[in-house]
Hints:
The protein is α+β, with helices and mostly antiparallel strands. The chain has a domain at 102-208 and 262-292. It has 4 helices and 14 strands. The chain has a 6-stranded mixed β-sheet, covered by helices on one side. A 5-stranded antiparallel β-sheet has the order 11-12-2-13-14. It has a 3-stranded antiparallel β-sheet with strand order 1-9-10, with helices on one face. The longest helix has 11 residues, at 69-79. Mean pLDDT is 79; it is low at 1-64.
Amino acid sequence: MQAIKQPAPQAFGSLPVRHAAWFDGMAPALPRAFHVNVAGSVSAVAVKPILRAHFADNRSDEMSKDNSISALIAQLDASREMKHDEKRIYKPAIEGVVEDQYFDVRPNFEYPQRLEWTNWPDMPARPRPDDRYFSGRSVNSIADPELKFPANAIKLIDYYAINSNCNFVSDRFADFVEQHAPGTIERRRVKIKARDGVVDYNLVIPRNMIEAVDTDRTAIEIRAFDRQDGNWIFRARMIGEPVFDPARTAGCLHFTDPDNLRWYWSRQLIDAAKAAGLRGMRFGPILHQYCEM
């Protein structure tokens, strides 16, 4: 299949942020690096800004003019109606819609042998994609991973996910993604110690972040945190599986979401990977699984 040009990854707004430590959006304590100004933008240094958004009017009564999570956050930040640690749920205007074009990548545990990362770093130091507030951590920011495989190298598959963000993949997996979507992954050579020898593999992080969740079709929970200095930040999570706005994913083969950090692939890319014989992935949640390989 010929490589398809990807839309440029979106820069996330007016939200410069200093990345001091990992923050999962659920703990009441906030990293000192965050700073939100009264105009509604988060500031610090060295992070991608959040998408600027138009406010959504009468969202509960009609489909919003701007159906992004950024629009909900901007509206809440401007109104300052929420209390510290308060959660607010936004029900979709159109319920019962299931995403059928993009599916998140998950490891296929039908393959019995697991890859072991013996020196994996603590959460703040692990490589990860960009998110709404933090710039991602590079695959080159850690010591050489010590990887062990409890069988002969011939049993290795193309995809392993040690945690939700660190993907250890074969050369043909990494080459496949780079062929179809050039410039959208960060790649580092690593070595796996199998029972019968050492094999070259890759640590890969996707670098194609797009805010594509359609809040008219996805239930959203937003949690507010008061910095106690007149500034606020807001964390969003999807209730159930997200549905994406096709206008924002048009022509995109894969991307990461800025709020849940999952790696989503299009039907087109999944079908091409299956045709190429890649092994070790399954796509989509259990209830709406698209395929496995």
